[in-house]
Design brief:
Oligomer: heterodimer
CATH architecture of the largest domain in chain A: Orthogonal Bundle
Radius of gyration of chain B: 23 Å
Largest sheet of chain A: none
CATH topology of the largest domain in chain A: MetI-like fold
Distance between the termini of chain A: 33 Å
Shape of chain B: globular
Helix content of chain B: 40-55%
CATH class of the largest domain in chain A: Mainly Alpha
Distance between the termini of chain B: 69 Å
Shape of chain A: globular
CATH superfamily of the largest domain in chain A: MetI-like
Strand content of chain B: 15-25%
Largest sheet of chain B: 7 strands, mixed
Number of strands of chain A: 0
CATH architecture of the largest domain in chain B: 3-Layer(aba) Sandwich
CATH topology of the largest domain in chain B: D-Maltodextrin-Binding Protein, domain 2
Number of helices of chain B: 16
Number of strands of chain B: 15
Largest interface: A-B, 29 and 28 residues
Number of domains of chain B: 3
Radius of gyration of chain A: 23 Å
Helix content of chain A: over 70%
Number of domains of chain A: 2
CATH superfamily of the largest domain in chain B: Periplasmic binding protein-like II
Structural class of chain B: alpha+beta
Strand content of chain A: under 5%
CATH class of the largest domain in chain B: Alpha Beta
Chain lengths: ~280, ~400
């Protein structure tokens, strides 16, 4: 009889083997690199870590990275939901094409996306020229970073919400209507609560992806210290100085903040599930 | 007629036979380009060939398993290195270089191999690696087995020596001219007709002028830009830190590499002036048209010396050492110098260069890195964390 943590929690056979494979792969792919980063941090020590992090330039880079990721993900939350809704609920010419196009940001190398967006939004680009008379500049400002992050984060929200909308039974809406609810009320009290867990998951994924995004952002950002310099670029700069410790310090700071944010989103998710009684 | 030819070392190409060049080489149409080289008579003479044919078999073979096996065998043959054939007759050089030398070394490798085989040696397989100078140096430090390094500034090569001990610290005295077979300088590229009237460094700090230059932290070339501006301020009794700070406050986009800045300036239309390597500026003129940009030479600039050296610790055989040493020394030969000149580098020996290549470079007063005390002093003092460059952005 096997004892301890490997005791099969279910009558289904194969737990030991599949658990072993899962742990091996997870260790190699995820846990080891993160462990190495944290190990480096432990070797440096918390006091020195703080010393390395406590400068205006690093704080502006970190706050820019998280602020831009948050703004872009919020935008994607709204726009992605609408896109998924339209794709599921309506039949129109070109629907399949748009459905396939949603995945493009996954497939495209991020550098290509960055260069393409920069070419469009630069002052001499198609959009850039149109926006210039209005006094708006997108490329090489923080807004440019938002645009790049919206682009790479969009499919995460759409692809997590879409299947849930597909499962959503029209009956519920009809019942709601026959009981006298107006459309906005049905949307607010019937549809959105059901979608909230999936929306939050998509939001969290998009956020996590955007925070660490490097390839597309450096082309459109302008990279001016304190203004448009993202935290991942600062890591690269520290590496160029052969200052591996300072690079690790910024990496650890990003890891901790991301972890806290994802934890908070998970907590909201659990709370909202309980509230609508889906658990 | 479909023929296989050998270009340079072991690189093969196939295409339709076009014509015989007389010196034993033939020209073929490889689909995307016309290539010339020596025809390969027996396509099983070297391991590279067997890799190619095995790979072709893998691609075209009907049976997936057979193809996979052939492909794997080819990979083992190509990368195993322990096969007798590979150990005896194949000498390999890995040249780890920086970005803008891509075109130059592509041609130099052919030139070197032609000369090397004419001396009665077996052809050398030369592999190239290009990237930002700092990233390339880090790759060598982290274990990339470079045979020779040819980087943008000696600070990057110093870093390799310091951190790995693969070659002695006085490496720069091993070859003539500070181990720099070709040099360049920093000039201004402005838009056609020079609408902002930019003539010298002091025009770059004027209100509203936008200057494009990469980040000296991530770009080796940008450090030369920084120092050239610094030298100007010192000569003209200006406070150099203030002057250079004012210049960087006029920089709207700080790219990570020299090519990125060139793209921002030429393609995106950002900025009034690009601080560029002279060879990059000439290249931009040649590629994008003389009527789009002008080159402005400032009153003082800096002699940019991109040095080369042998990575002794990565040498595996005497034959490889001989080939690698010859590879670097031959950079100083009149024909290689002529090639460098034709790629817009300021080389030393103009004896075999085309007259227009040799006469291209305007006279300019050049300071050298030695005037600043050398890279070991400059690198930490100006570009170290929290030092002069970082202070510009701390205010």
């Amino acid at each position: 009889m096997r004892a301890g943590i490997l005791r099969s929690p279910s009558p289904l056979p194969g737990f030991g083997l599949s658990f072993g494979i899962m742990m091996t792969v997870l260790s190699i792919v995820v846990l080891l690199p993160i462990g190495a980063l944290l190990g480096r941090g432990l070797m440096i020590g918390p006091a020195d870590l703080w010393e390395m992090l406590n400068s205006r330039r690093i704080w502006s880079a970190l706050s820019l990275s998280f602020r831009a990721a948050l703004i872009a993900s919020l935008f994607n939350l709204v726009f992605g939901l609408m896109l998924a809704w339209v794709l599921v609920r309506y039949r129109f010419w070109g629907r399949r094409f748009i459905d396939a196009a949603v995945d493009l940001p996954f497939a495209l190398p991020t550098a290509v996306a960055g260069i393409a967006l920069t070419a469009l939004y630069a002052p001499n680009g198609v959009f850039g020229q149109a926006l210039a008379p209005l006094g708006l500049q997108v490329a090489y400002t923080e807004v440019g970073i938002w645009v790049a992050l919206v682009f790479i984060g969009l499919p995460f929200v759409v692809r997590t919400v879409q299947p849930v909308i597909e499962e959503l039974e029209a009956d519920l809406e009809e019942v709601s209507a026959t009981l006298g609810a107006r459309r906005a009320y049905t949307l607010r009290r019937v549809i959105l609560p059901t979608l909230t867990p999936a929306l939050l998951t998509g939001f969290a994924l998009a956020l996590a992806r955007s925070v660490g995004e490097y390839g597309s952002v450096i082309f459109i950002a302008g990279n001016i210290p304190n203004l448009t310099e993202i935290a991942p670029l600062l890591i690269v700069i520290r590496l160029e100085e052969y200052n591996y410790d300072a690079a690790a310090a910024i990496g650890i700071a990003m890891l901790i903040i991301s972890f806290a944010m994802l934890l908070a989103i998970n907590a909201i998710q659990t709370w909202s599930r309980r509230r609508i009684g889906l658990v | 007629m479909y023929r296989t030819i050998q270009i340079g070392g072991h690189t093969l190409a196939q295409g339709i036979f076009l014509r015989s060049l007389g010196d034993g080489r033939i020209e073929i149409d490889a689909g995307h380009a016309r290539l010339s080289g020596h025809p390969v008579a027996t396509p099983r003479s070297s391991e590279t060939v067997s890799f190619h044919s095995a790979f072709r078999k893998a691609l075209t073979g009907g049976h997936l398993r057979g193809g996979l096996l052939a492909g794997l065998t080819g990979l083992v043959l190509a990368f195993g290195g322990t096969t007798p054939a590979a150990a005896q007759d194949s000498i390999e050089i890995l040249n780890v270089s920086y970005d803008p030398t891509r075109e130059f070394y592509r041609e130099y490798n052919e030139l070197f191999n032609a000369w090397w085989t004419a001396q009665g040696n077996a052809p050398v397989t030369i592999r190239q690696s290009h990237g930002g100078a700092g990233a390339q140096a880090r790759a060598v430090i982290d274990g990339l087995e470079a045979t020779v390094v040819t980087l943008a500034l000696s600070a990057d090569i110093d870093a390799i020596s310091e951190r790995t001990g693969l070659f002695p610290a006085d490496w720069q005295s091993r070859l003539p001219h500070n181990s720099s077979p070709y040099t360049s300088t920093i000039v201004f590229l402005v838009r056609e007709g020079n609408p902002r009237g930019i003539e010298d460094w002091d025009d770059l700090v004027a209100d509203g002028v936008q200057v494009i230059t990469p980040n000296p932290k991530t770009s080796g070339g940008a450090r030369w830009n920084f120092l050239a501006a610094w030298a100007y301020a010192e000569r003209n009794d200006l406070d150099p830190a203030e002057f250079v700070g004012a210049m960087y406050r006029n920089v709207p986009v700080l790219d990570t590499g020299a090519r990125g800045s060139t793209t921002t300036f030429t393609q995106r239309g950002i900025g009034d002036v690009l601080l560029a390597w002279e060879n990059e500026a000439f290249l931009a003129l040649a590629e994008l048209g003389e009527d789009a940009f002008d080159i402005v030479v400032p009153s003082v600039s800096i002699l940019a010396e991109p040095p080369v050296t042998l990575v002794d610790g990565n040498i595996t055989s005497d034959a490889q050492r001989a080939a690698a040493e010859a590879y670097l020394q031959h950079l100083y030969s009149p024909e290689a110098q002529a090639l460098a000149l034709s790629h817009y580098y300021r080389a030393w020996d103009t004896s075999q260069a085309a007259p227009e290549d040799a006469a291209r470079f305007p006279e300019v007063e050049l300071v050298t890195i030695a005037d600043f005390g050398g890279w070991p002093v400059v690198q930490p003092e100006y570009f170290g964390e929290g030092r002069i460059f970082d202070q510009i952005y701390e205010e």
